C-alpha cells in the first residue's frame, strides 16, 4: 500500500485572493461597478451644481437689469412729477383769495403791517405788525380770531418799539377754504 497524503487545509478560502475563484471575480466586478457609479454620480452632481450657479447668475443679472430699468424710469419720471407738482402749487397759489386774506389782516386801522410771510405749504402766514397800545392789540387779535379766514392765531412775540407802540409777531393759520388743498392743518403749539 501506498501512503496517502491528505491536506486538510483548503487552499481555496473565501478570504484568499485568487483570480480563478468566482467570489473574487464578483467582488472585483462589484467594486468596479460601484466606483463607476460613484464617479458618474459625482460628475452629475457637479454638473447640476454648475447649472444652478449659472441659473442664479443669470437670474441676478435679469433682476439687476430690471432694477436698473425701473430706476431709470423713476429718475426720468421724477423731474416731470416734481415739475407738475410745482406747476400745480403755483396755480393754486395764484388762485388763492389774497384780497380777502389781506382785508382780514388790515381790518383795524390802528395796525401797521411791517412784514407778511405766507407759508402756503403749511397753510400759515407769519406777520409782523406795529400797534399803538396793548388794548388795541387785544382788540385786533379778537377781530382776527372772529374772522372766517383764520382757523387759529398764535402770538409768537410782542415787545415795546423804540419809536413807540408795540411790535407784534404772530402766526395765523388759514382756514380750510383759504389754504392749499394739500397743506396739512397744524396742531396747536
Would you kindly provide a written description of the structure presented here, covering whatever features stand out?
The mean pLDDT is about 80. Helix content is about 50%, strand content about 20%. It has helices spanning about 20-95, 100-105, 135-145; strands spanning about 110-120, 125-130, 150-160, 165-175. The longest helix is centred in the first third of the chain and has 73 residues, at about 20-95. With about 190 residues, it is α+β, with helices and mostly antiparallel strands. The chain has three helices and four strands.
Task: List the main descriptive attributes of the protein structure presented here.
single chain, rod-shaped
Order of helices and strands: HHEEHEE
Number of helices: 3
What is the total tally of β strands?
Answer: 4
Radius of gyration from CA coordinates: 48 Å
Structural classification: alpha+beta
How are strands sequenced across the largest beta sheet?
Answer: 1-2-4-3
Shape from CA axes? Answer: rod-shaped
Terminal CA distance: 135 Å
User: Could you give a short account of the major beta sheet?
Assistant: 4 strands, antiparallel
- Stretches where pLDDT is under 50 for at least 5 consecutive residues are none
Query: What fraction of residues sit in β-strands?
Result: 15-25%
The averaged pLDDT comes out at: 80
Proportion of residues in helical segments: 40-55%
List the helices and strands and how they pair.
Layout: H1 22-94, H2 98-105, E1 112-119, E2 124-131, H3 134-146, E3 150-160, E4 166-174
Antiparallel strand pairs: 1-2, 2-4, 3-4
Amino acid at each position: 500500500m501506498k501512503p496517502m497524503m491528505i491536506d486538510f487545509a483548503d487552499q481555496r478560502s473565501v478570504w484568499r485572493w485568487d483570480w480563478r475563484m468566482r467570489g473574487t471575480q464578483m467582488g472585483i466586478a462589484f467594486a468596479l461597478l460601484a466606483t463607476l457609479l460613484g464617479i458618474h454620480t459625482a460628475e452629475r452632481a457637479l454638473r447640476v451644481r454648475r447649472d444652478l450657479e449659472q441659473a442664479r447668475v443669470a437670474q441676478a443679472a435679469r433682476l439687476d437689469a430690471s432694477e436698473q430699468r425701473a430706476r431709470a424710469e423713476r429718475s426720468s419720471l421724477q423731474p416731470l412729477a416734481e415739475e407738475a407738482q410745482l406747476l400745480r402749487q403755483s396755480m393754486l397759489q395764484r388762485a388763492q383769495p389774497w384780497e380777502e386774506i389781506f382785508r382780514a389782516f388790515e381790518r383795524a386801522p390802528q395796525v401797521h403791517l411791517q412784514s407778511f410771510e405766507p407759508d402756503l405749504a403749511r397753510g400759515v402766514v407769519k406777520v409782523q405788525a406795529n400797534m399803538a397800545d396793548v388794548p388795541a392789540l387785544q382788540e385786533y387779535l379778537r377781530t382776527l380770531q372772529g374772522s372766517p379766514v383764520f382757523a387759529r392765531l398764535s402770538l409768537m412775540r410782542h415787545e415795546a418799539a423804540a419809536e413807540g407802540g408795540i411790535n407784534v409777531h404772530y402766526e395765523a393759520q388759514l382756514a380750510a377754504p383759504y389754504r392749499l388743498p394739500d397743506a396739512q392743518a397744524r396742531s396747536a403749539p
